[in-house]
Amino acid sequence: MSDMRLIVAGAGGRMGRALARAIADTEGAVLAGALEAPGSELLGKDAGVLAGLPANGIKLSADLWAMSKDADGILDFTVPAATIANVAIAAERGIVHIIGTTGLSASDNAVIKSVTNRAVVVQSGNMSLGVNLLAAVVKRVAKALDESFDIEVVETHHRMKIDAPSGTALMLGQAAAAGRGISLDEHSDRGRDGITGARKPGDIGFASLRGGTVAGEHSVTFLGPFERLTLSHLAEDRMLFAHGALKAALWAHGKKPGHYSMADVLGLADI
Ligand SMILES: NC(=O)C1=CN([C@@H]2O[C@H](COP(=O)(O)OP(=O)(O)OC[C@H]3O[C@@H](n4cnc5c(N)ncnc54)[C@H](OP(=O)(O)O)[C@@H]3O)[C@@H](O)[C@H]2O)C=CC1
Ligand SMILES: O=C(O)C1=N[C@H](C(=O)O)C[C@H](O)C1
Fold it and tell me: Which residues participate in NAD(+) binding (predicted)?
């Protein structure tokens, strides 16, 4: 099979630059386009040079329709509005869409789902093996422990992150809720401040720390009578997520239309 031709959306961003480096490192993948926001001062710059590599001749452009003509997939780590605009074009072109963007609303997610009867989408708030394994373990533990154990999800990220709780924290909260057989929407405690009252039994709490250059740190703590169990994951470098996204793209190439998760890619969906 010929190399998978991939577009990086948000090519000037932290993940976009990491993705360009990961593609250059990965056999079977080649950079076919670099998308940036209309009006960005980076438009026209070389994607290789921006990523700290030799020039590769791929210039940043805001025209996804044109650059996707001969592409096979798009790796999208941008912002919700951009991802939603990209969904329609990727589906129309029939190219694989790997979505890592977080902070998406319920209606954004409904738009993404709506194309998956005709498009291949892999979406995950975290592309790492470790976090997806952690989610499977959290689900199991939550199933084993009753409401006498409170569940708290804590995440720490770099100072530039714009959304909270992180996509990963929400994914871990969903895993805990699924293990317990409850709806996260109905049992979520976010943003405590002031006189909050006592903790509601059964709620899943979230707390977000921001600062420095932290690539991503997550923990789920089960707090019971006289004991506590904490499960955690530490991302040491965002190249972890870039390599995960590449793995997802190569896995998805040629798959039938559907809405896939990283657990599907990693063979963890049944755990
Ligand atoms: N699922 C996972 O494993 C991971 C997910 N993420 C998520 O990925 C997203 C990006 O993170 P990060 O790289 O740190 O953020 P950055 O802000 O560094 O990068 C986002 C990039 O997208 C660009 N952008 C904005 N609008 C558009 C548009 N319309 N078309 C194309 N590009 C656009 C931004 O440009 P400009 O600055 O000019 O606005 C910026 O360059 C976040 O949602 C983050 O949570 C991050 C790491 C791992
Ligand atoms: O913005 C980030 O950096 C990250 N975002 C993702 C999230 O919201 O969980 C994944 C990772 O933790 C890094």
Answer: 10-15, 36, 100-102, 124-127
Rounded distance, CA 205 to CA 217, Å?
16
- The ipTM assigned to this model is 0.99
Pairwise CA distance, residues 188 & 152, whole Å: 10
Q: Give CA–CA dist 28/264, Å, rounded.
A: 20
Q: Which atom of ligand 2 is nearest to the CA of 161?
A: 1
Q: Which of 76, 123, 126 to mutate to test the pocket of ligand 2 (most atoms within 8 A of CB)?
A: 126
Let me know whether 71 and 176 are in one domain: no
78 is in an annotated binding site: no
175 closest CA partner among 228, 227, 126, 110 = 126
Please indicate whether residue 157 is annotated as part of the active site: yes
Indicate whether 181 and 82 sit together in one domain: no
Q: Which residues of the chain have pLDDT under 50?
A: none
Establish if 271 belongs to a structural domain: no
Residue 184: count other Cβ atoms within 10 Å of its Cβ: 17
* pTM for this prediction: 0.98
Are 22 and 100 within one domain?
yes
Count of structural domains, the chain: 2
